[in-house]
Amino acid sequence: MAHKLDPTGSLVGLAISSWFLTRIFIEVPSGLISAKVGRRNLIVRGILLGILGSLLCALSNSIYILILGRTLWGFGTALYFTSNTALMLDLFNPEVRGRAMGVFQGICFLGSFLGAPLGAVLARFIGFNAVFVAATVVVLPAFLVAFFSKDLREMDRAARREHETVPIRNIITSLNDPALLGVCYVNLSRMLVAQGVMSTVFQLYLNETLGIAVELIGLTLAVRTISIISMVVLSGYLTDRLGSELVVLLGLAINALGQGLYPLASSFEQILPLAIIESAGGGFLFTSLIVYLSDLVSPSLRGGAVGLFRTFMDLGGILGPIVFMLIYNSLGPHTSFWLASAMLTSNIVIISLIKMRRRVDNLSEFK
């Protein structure tokens, strides 16, 4: 659609990236103010902005309106996901928080898994503009539920009463905490690998280097996604039973192992089980890492922490394909996987250092 509105292609990249770029600048501010104005208020406004952005895309007759629609949509997405994640962490106590986040993240992944092929089919039969209309129709009930739900309103009020309100300046200062920044860096690295290697280099490697047929590549990606969704839900349960820290370390180790083994595979039969193993590690991280973050910060600082966490995630999503395609083209396909494995392994060291620091802090408080 972007190429149709801009045949020169000069603004197509901006139309695609505007959704992500907006999120980078909105995630932290939305997290900072969510405790002040209420998570629910930002959730409702985020969904509404997403609907308006989708309608603009549907009605766009120029590339500039499409960019504006995508930007508005990204703005709303940032408001919604930051506030909704913080509210989920507010509502559930640590004993069941992992399972709650696992179900939430699993539903999000399932929507992405089904949405992409469904959108492609709709675009083929009813046109690109109509796809955005369909997206609006699907999202509208969610807006109505969020807007009129008395339960959501009361849950938000209860969460705000339970946690003290901290001045925004103090929240910003607290975001300099080394442990918090360490977890955010791990999230950045995870997304660099997920988007740069698995969503970009991996497909090229399977086709260009190993000569695997396109339909088998599609099957591999589908199996990976199903594995991720399953592990996202399972990791929530394991997080509650074993602790978020252990599940994060387990996810990093499995993911790093899978990345390191990919260059040793030479056929579809060898790639497929590795894809299941590697994606299982990635699925473990999606749930356990955000729960681990909530364990590190006080409830009053949670909104800002979630906003920072998601900002690092967005940066990884944007920079990953750029960085790893440069590596793929200049140093060869195997180097991308080895570097990804080394990066994930180094994150194990970071989490271990955070664990040691927390242990020292706990001992100091005990004394």
The whole-number mean of residue pLDDT values reads: 86
CATH class wording of the largest domain = Mainly Alpha
C-alpha geometry: globular
Please provide the ordered H/E string of secondary-structure elements.
Answer: HHHHHHHHHHHHHH
Total number of helices: 14
Describe the protein's architecture and organization.
The chain is mostly helical and about 375 residues long. It has two domains: about 1-160, Growth Hormone, Chain: A; about 175-360, Growth Hormone, Chain: A. It is built from 14 helices and no strands. The chain has helices spanning about 1-5, 10-35, 40-60, 65-90, 95-125, 130-150, 150-160, 170-175, 180-210, 215-240, 245-260, 270-295, 300-330, 335-365.
What is this structure, in a nutshell?
With about 375 residues, the protein is mostly helical.
Which key phrases capture this entry?
367 residues; mainly alpha; Growth Hormone, Chain: A; 2 domains; 88% helix
Describe the protein's topology:
Layout: H1 2-5, H2 12-37, H3 39-59, H4 63-91, H5 97-126, H6 128-148, H7 150-162, H8 168-174, H9 178-209, H10 214-242, H11 244-261, H12 268-296, H13 302-331, H14 333-366
